[in-house]
């Protein structure tokens, strides 16, 4: 960890009705962001603010404001902050709402309760990343692993989706659409759950196909689920590989707005 003032303090989307990160508020520590514009938008104007002395480059051009043209309702913007030899890169994905075929959230758990036994997705969920894996440590006496896949579309989205088996599932043949379970929880409301069963010797692959409001634009997300009973590998300061026989591991990382 090292302190740095290389982060965006504020991003403003000047188009009326456009929404940055689903209106959750800009997080300068996250380096990937989404902007959803109203249908029919052909260009989006962005304004960026960073700390004093930090140079901002937008798609290779120095400045703090830029108007970005959309092609087929989409655009990608790369923003690079630099100060001396240090650099930091942000990526902004722009979509018109009617061509947005993105998931809003994806979770995997080992429970029928969305709040319990959540499992890590690798990489962490990002609507612009379409391939994930998640593993479960399980007793050898069980011949299959049972997962819950929790799928959500962006808030107020008019897109649709379906979940199908690709390979390695115990409870569905390849190409078969999985049955949705509408679960309701007091703190999160209704959320779609899919039960996925994978034999312990297999890697189960599930595909989530999102169809945008226009009925034409689609995007596939792949999730690979498998059992992993391997002990974690730890690396010492000399880059020497170490093996620790432990039952658990706890990592604690502290950072603030001035560091990462």
Provide a descriptive summary of the structure in words.
By secondary structure, the protein is mainly beta. Helix content is 0%, strand content 48%. It has a 6-stranded mixed β-sheet with strand order 2-3-9-8-5-6, with no helix packed on it. Strand 5 (55-58) and strand 6 (61-62) form a beta hairpin. 23% of the residues are buried. Residues 256-260 have low confidence and may be disordered.
What's the helix and strand layout?
Blueprint lengths: L7 E6 L5 E2 L11 E6 L5 E8 L4 E4 L2 E2 L2 E5 L4 E10 L2 E11 L8 E5 L8 E2 L11 E6 L7 E9 L7 E8 L13 E5 L3 E11 L3 E9 L6 E10 L5 E3 L5 E3 L17
Parallel strand pairs: 3-9, 12-18
Antiparallel strand pairs: 1-4, 2-3, 4-7, 5-6, 5-8, 8-9, 10-11, 10-13, 13-16, 14-17, 15-16, 17-18, 19-20
């Amino acid at each position: 960890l090292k302190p740095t003032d290389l982060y965006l303090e504020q991003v403003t989307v000047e188009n009326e009705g456009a929404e940055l990160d689903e209106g959750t508020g800009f997080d300068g520590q996250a380096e990937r962001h989404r902007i959803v514009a109203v249908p029919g938008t052909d260009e989006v104007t962005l304004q960026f603010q960073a700390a004093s002395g930090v140079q901002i480059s937008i798609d290779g051009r120095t400045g703090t404001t830029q108007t970005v043209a959309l092609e087929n309702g989409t655009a990608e913007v790369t923003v690079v902050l630099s100060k001396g030899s240090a650099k930091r890169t942000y990526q902004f994905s722009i979509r018109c709402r009617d061509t947005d075929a993105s998931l809003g959230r994806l979770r995997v758990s080992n429970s029928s309760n969305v709040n319990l036994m959540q499992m890590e997705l690798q990489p962490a969920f990002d609507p612009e990343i379409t391939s994930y894996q998640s593993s479960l440590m399980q007793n050898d006496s069980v011949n299959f692993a049972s997962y819950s896949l929790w799928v959500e579309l962006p808030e107020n989205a008019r897109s649709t989706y379906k979940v199908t088996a690709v390979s390695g599932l115990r409870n569905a043949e390849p190409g078969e659409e999985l049955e949705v379970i509408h679960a309701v929880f007091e703190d999160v409301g209704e959320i779609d759950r899919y039960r996925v069963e994978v034999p312990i010797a297999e890697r189960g692959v599930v595909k989530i196909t999102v169809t945008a409001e226009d009925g034409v634009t689609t995007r596939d997300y792949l999730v690979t689920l498998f059992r992993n009973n391997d002990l974690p590998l730890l690396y010492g300061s000399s880059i020497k590989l170490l093996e620790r026989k432990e039952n658990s591991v706890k990592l604690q990382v502290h950072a603030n707005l001035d560091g990462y």
